[in-house]
Design a protein that fits this description.
- Chain B: It catalyses: (2S)-2-methylbutanoyl-CoA + oxidized [electron-transfer flavoprotein] + H(+) = (2E)-2-methylbut-2-enoyl-CoA + reduced [electron-transfer flavoprotein].
- Chain B: Its cofactor is FAD.
- Chain B: This is Isovaleryl-CoA dehydrogenase.
- The complex is a heterodimer of chains A (256) and B (417).
- Chain A has 256 residues and is an alpha/beta fold.
- Chain A has 6 helices and 11 strands.
- Chain A is 26% helix and 27% strand.
- Chain A has a 9-stranded mixed sheet, with helices on both faces. A two-stranded antiparallel sheet of chain A has the order 2-3.
- In chain A, strand 4, helix 2 and strand 5 form a beta-alpha-beta unit.
- In chain A, helix 2 packs across helix 5.
- With 417 residues, chain B is α+β, with helices and mostly antiparallel strands.
- Chain B has 3 domains: 140 residues, Butyryl-Coa Dehydrogenase, subunit A, domain 1 (Orthogonal Bundle); 114 residues, Beta Barrel (Butyryl-CoA Dehydrogenase, subunit A, domain 2); 147 residues, Butyryl-CoA Dehydrogenase, subunit A, domain 3.
- Helices cover 52% and strands 13% of the residues of chain B.
- Classes of the chains: A alpha/beta (256), B alpha+beta (417).
- Chains A and B meet through helix 2 and helix 5 of A and helix 1 and helix 3 of B.
- Bound molecules: flavin-adenine dinucleotide.
- Flavin-adenine dinucleotide binds next to helix 6, strand 1, strand 3 and helix 12 of chain B.
Chain lengths: 256, 417
């Protein structure tokens, strides 16, 4: 079993995204989606990652939880949310450029080299672009073992954890030696509500301001967005009276 | 052309309800802490409070377990109390945010929250001694204690300075209380009339309107019993309302809060934050009513088009929104300049409640109208909001009391800012 404080520092990646409840709209010029005056929040999977790290600290496993965010000036609000949940400090790498997984992973890898955590926890994906790449790329850059889409993280010693992953047909448990990258799936935990006293304390916690250039990363993307379109409107379905009628319809439409 | 404008308007409308425009955001969320407070209370209200509201309304049952979580999990019960007493050290705007957001989910539950956090906890934090605060506030902030305040009596409400419950000074410095209180929120906390844990009770210690003092009375003191539990209320049914009876209840000398015959000031100070947060509750009721009628009027078709495209329905939607925003701006503006320990803001603390209470009642009424028959039944939420809204023009002072107070203050003003 892991001893007290065995994990040392835990870093958590947090991303600012359009709130899950907002109905996303494509901009008239099709260059992307509307973001101005639209409610943004902390990516729900990042929230799960923060919760897991804070629980590790509460259980005496981690000594410090650091929330790391690459994003615009306003992302400070979202770092503050993580601090209100219990993270100890923040690192804000400010940029107005698109935060594509490859560049974010490059920056996070540099942050990890400087901070030397024993674990870097991220959300499995962000709900805006659903890329599901940053954790994997980060593990690759650092040469660390990775457990993606974790539904359970259990310490087994001072130098290793078991990570349970939900895969097709069941659960897979990996043993990762530390330091490692873990990405959080929905069932890892249920994030807490930030308590008001902790919200008030968050104000006094430190957020380091950095830029991508501080880590030698150029935010220019190697990918170019040509056009963004609304998904086609789904046509209304019809009710059929019997299986025979269904089969007939499908045949008639040339579907079977 | 027409269709385009109206859909652009609809987009703008939806946005203002989810996030206010940046300039106004600072009035409603002046700091990052206020913003985070709103987020956390709204998330809790949506996932934990709204789902239980209908059932507790039907059963006329106070949700004690959920109430305690406001303290233990969210730190909301001592929202305006300094950290040294177990509170969160927020200001009047913070209190308004908490009441507005909780009330959008369940006004009755929020009324119990208000009676505890504003009428007892904030009252004691502002008017009590260091020792009294140390004794009561940590337990009241954590949710271990459920508390209330007793001012009204069976025979006096508006005319509260004529109250008849008495406190007689004994030779050893203790006091003996006799009399009865009525309409006390959190007076009892269960169906079988278990008393709340502690109360601030106003009692007469001398003749005349100034002869009133404030006392701490605990559950379990001999002679302190629950009166009738008031059932069958029109609204606020999930908030428990009871009488309190005092028969030769001896309270120690240190149960006196503030000065002998000095409670009128405590009362006036506390009524200001009470009225402001009752106005905030009205805002929550109005916002939720607007959300419900707004979404319904998009989905429901009549004569081949959505309800929202029929002229009279547009009036319900637009008028409700404009009145709601006016009430919201007024309430937050007053909150932003209300110091918790001050007195002398009565014109506007009465004013916001007078305006917001009737505004919410009208908005909920229109929401019922937009939903038609569905609006008239409990499952669609606005029926309950409408009934709950009705209390706010009575409790914490009737509309007429506000009009009297305001007119009196206005008589001293020749020119308005
Ligand atoms: C659900 C609920 C919860 C409550 N919770 C609490 C609580 O926790 N603690 C507490 O102390 N009290 C509480 N109250 C009591 C509440 O504050 C009183 O009901 C309110 O102050 C009105 O008093 P009343 O009911 O005695 O009405 P009255 O004062 O008898 O008024 C009856 C009518 O006469 C009008 N009126 C009276 N005087 C005048 C005047 N001078 N000029 C013009 N019109 C006048 C009133 O406006 C009203 O329309 C609660 C009440 C309710 C219904």
């Amino acid at each position: 079993m892991a001893a007290n404080g065995a994990f040392g520092r835990v870093l958590v990646g947090v991303k600012r995204v359009i709130d899950y409840a907002v109905k996303v709209r494509v901009k008239p010029d099709k260059s992307g989606v509307e973001t101005v005056n639209v409610k943004h929040s902390l990516n729900p999977f990042c929230e799960i990652a923060v919760e897991e790290a804070v629980r590790m600290k509460e259980a005496g496993l981690a000594t410090e939880v650091v929330a790391v965010c690459v994003g615009p000036k306003k992302a400070q609000e979202n770092i503050r949310s993580a601090l209100a949940m219990g993270a100890d400090r923040g690192i804000h790498i400010e940029t107005d450029e698109e935060v594509a997984p490859l560049n974010v992973a490059r920056i996070l890898a540099e942050v990890a080299k400087a901070e030397e955590p024993s674990m870097f926890i991220l959300g499995k994906q962000a709900i805006d672009d659903d890329s599901n790449q940053t954790g994997q790329l980060l593990g690759g850059f650092l040469g660390w073992p990775q457990g993606t889409m974790a539904s359970k993280i259990e310490p087994v010693s001072d130098t290793a954890v078991h990570v349970t992953r939900e895969i097709d047909g069941g659960l897979e448990t990996l043993e990762l030696s530390l330091p490692a990258v873990v990405t959080a799936d929905l069932r890892l935990n249920k994030p807490r509500f930030a308590a008001l006293p902790n919200i008030m304390k968050a104000k006094r916690k430190k957020i380091d301001a950095k830029t991508p250039a501080d880590f030698g990363v150029d935010m220019a993307s190697s990918l170019q967005t040509l056009e963004v379109n609304e998904p086609p409107v789904r046509e209304a379905g019809i009710m059929v009276g019997s299986v025979d009628e269904l089969v007939e319809k499908l045949k008639g439409d040339g579907l079977i | 052309m027409f269709a385009l404008t109206s859909s652009a308007l609809a987009t703008a409308c939806r946005r203002s309800l989810s996030t206010a425009a940046p300039a106004l955001a600072s009035l409603y969320n002046p700091t990052e802490e206020h913003e985070l407070l709103r987020q956390t209370v709204r998330a809790f209200a949506d996932s934990e409070v709204r789902p239980q509201a209908l059932e507790h309304n039907r059963e006329e049952k106070f949700n004690l377990e959920l109430f305690r979580r406001l303290g233990s999990e969210l730190g909301l019960l001592g929202i305006t109390v300094p950290e040294e007493y177990g509170g969160s050290g927020m200001d009047a705007v913070g209190a308004v945010i908490a009441h507005e957001e909780l009330s959008a989910a369940d006004p009755a539950f929020t009324l119990s929250y208000l009676a505890h956090s504003m009428l007892f906890v904030n009252n004691l934090a502002v008017n009590g001694s260091h020792e009294q605060k140390l004794k009561y506030l940590p337990k009241a902030c954590s949710g271990e204690f459920v508390c209330g305040m007793g001012m009204s009596e069976p025979a006096v409400g508006t005319d509260v300075l004529n109250l008849t419950t008495t406190a007689r000074a004994n030779d050893d410095g203790s006091w003996t209380l006799n009399g009865a209180k009525m309409w006390i929120t959190n007076g009892t906390v269960s169906k079988d009339r278990e008393l709340g844990d502690a109360f601030l009770v106003y009692a007469r210690t001398a003749e005349g309107p100034k002869g009133i003092s404030l006392f701490l009375v605990d559950k379990g003191m001999p002679g302190f019993e629950p009166g009738a539990k008031i059932e069958d209320k029109l609204g606020m049914r999930a908030s428990s309302t009871s009488g309190l009876v005092f028969e030769d209840v001896v309270v120690p000398a240190d149960a006196l809060v503030g000065e002998v015959n000095g409670a009128t000031l405590c009362m006036m100070r506390n009524l200001e934050i009470e009225r402001l947060t009752l106005a905030a509750m009205s805002l929550g009721i109005a916002r939720r009513s607007i959300e419900v009628m707004n979404n319904y009027s998009t989905e429901r078709m009549a004569y081949g088009k959505p309800l929202r495209e029929h002229g009279q329905m547009k009036a319900h939607l637009a008028n409700s929104y404009a009145e709601y925003m006016a009430g919201r701006a007024y309430t937050y503006e007053v909150a932003s300049r209300l110091e918790l320990d001050s007195y002398g803001n009565q014109l506007d603390t009465d004013g916001v409640k007078l305006f917001a209470a009737d505004m919410a009642k009208d908005v909920a009424d229109r929401a019922i109208q937009v939903l038609g028959g569905y609006g008239y039944v409990g499952e669609y939420e606005v029926e309950r909001l409408y009934r709950d809204a009705r209390l706010i023009s009575i409790g914490g002072g009737t509309n007429e009391a506000h009009q009297n107070n305001m007119s009196k203050v206005m008589a001293r003003i020749q020119q308005f800012e």
